Input
Amino acid sequence: MKSETIQEYNAVISHRRSRKSRNFLRNYELYLFMCPAVLYFLIFHYLPLYGIQIAFKDFIATKGIWNSPWVGFKHFKMFFDSYYAWQLIKNTVLLSLYTIVAGFPLPILLALMLNEVRSKVYKKIVQTTAYAPHFISTVVMVGMVYMAMHPVYGVVNTVIKAFGMDPIDFLNKPEYFKSLYVWSGVWQNTGWESVIYFAVLSNVDPEQHEAATIDGASRLQRIWHINLPVIIPTAVILFVLNAGSIMSISFEKIYLMQTPLNAQASDVISTYIYKVGLQGAKFSLTTAIGLFNSVINFLFLIVVNQIAKRLSSTSLW
Output
């Protein structure tokens, strides 16, 4: 009896292996197609994880990563005990939240508005005008901000002076830094980010609008009851992804806009890592800060994803 059971078990295993082999041979082109993506993630995203261990070591270049001495949580403690730690975390979180609150709804609004435009020529002009700033490099973008906000030659201060008021040195005052950073980014990216929502809206069946129009629905009612429900799942997914990078502020733009006088508001974790890690050669400390950053991002992603799943039944997984 036992011998028959073992034979049946072996036959089932053999059948499964044979089926997997046939499936693999039948779809080998798809597996080959996946290879570059798998290699990319292995080389650039998983292999560097080996270096995380220097966050728990006093890294000595001559000894290498493996032979440097272990020091436990020394570098994490050093960061949180430092004078700048909470200021950096506060600036990073506030800038991220400000960016999400100001920048997230506008692409949806723009896509809904453009979708209602009937003139194709006008629609293309608006779309081109809205998309164009996205292709401006960060360096040029910051240069434009400097030119517009310059206390002597800037357009904004010229208007302010025309009303008899004193010019404002926007770029060197900490209280203006966050707004300059966020709203210049909104201007640059709103049009480009609306492309996704515009593509989603193009899938709405026109017959739904025709039926709603016959039933007497106004344009606003059709947007609210037909277009908006189609956009919401995409908006939820993008919101969850944005929440998962709440501690990852773009380094380049902040560093270019930073001056010694606005450092109180512009110093964030990414600029601190650059100054201390690369310029100060404290690799273990900055790896610890980067690891802390990634863990917080991951936790935010999990929490926001779960909230989105309960509220809208849409989530990343």
